[in-house]
Design brief:
The strands form three sheets. This protein has a five-stranded antiparallel sheet, with no helix packed on it. The chain has a three-stranded antiparallel sheet with strand order 1-2-5, with no helix packed on it. Strands 3-10 form a two-stranded parallel sheet. By secondary structure, the chain is mostly beta strands. It is 4% helix and 42% strand. The protein binds zinc ion (ZN). The site of zinc ion (ZN) has 9 residues, from loops.
Length: 112
C-alpha cells in the first residue's frame, strides 16, 4: 500500500504523482465541482507533484486554485493559496483507480 500512483491529463502534457491510490474519493456538489465532474482524492500538499503546463481558476473566496491542463483542459487538481496543508487531485486522472470498488463520498454544496 506504500506504492506511489500516477496519473495524467487526456493529452499527457500534465503528469501527476501521488503517494498512493485513494481508498475513497469525494464527489462534491458545490457550484464548481459539480460542473467539473471531478472526484477528489485528498493528500498533503507536499505529497503531490504535478508537472506540465497548467492554467489556474480562482473564484469566490479565492482560498483554493483549480489547475487545468493548458492544452486539453482536464481539471487535474486544486491547491490551497494559503497555508492550508491539504490539496486534492482529480482521481479521474489516476491510472489504476477502480471506480467500482473505491468508496465515493458525496458532499453536498458547502460553498454556495
Ligand atoms: Zn492535457
Amino acid at each position: 500500500m506504500t506504492q506511489s500512483a500516477h496519473g495524467r491529463c487526456h493529452c499527457g502534457a500534465v503528469q501527476l504523482s501521488v503517494p498512493r491510490l485513494p481508498a475513497d474519493v469525494t464527489e462534491c456538489h458545490c457550484s464548481i465541482c459539480r460542473r467539473y465532474g471531478a472526484l477528489w482524492a485528498y493528500y498533503k500538499v507536499k505529497e503531490v507533484s504535478f508537472t506540465g503546463p497548467t492554467e489556474l481558476y480562482v473564484w469566490g473566496r479565492k482560498y483554493i486554485a483549480f489547475h487545468r491542463c493548458a492544452k486539453c483542459g482536464c481539471v487535474v487538481a486544486w491547491t490551497p493559496r494559503g497555508d492550508y496543508p491539504e490539496c486534492a487531485v482529480n482521481a479521474r486522472m489516476l491510472e489504476g483507480l477502480n471506480l467500482e470498488i473505491v468508496r465515493v463520498i458525496v458532499e453536498e454544496d458547502a460553498s454556495g
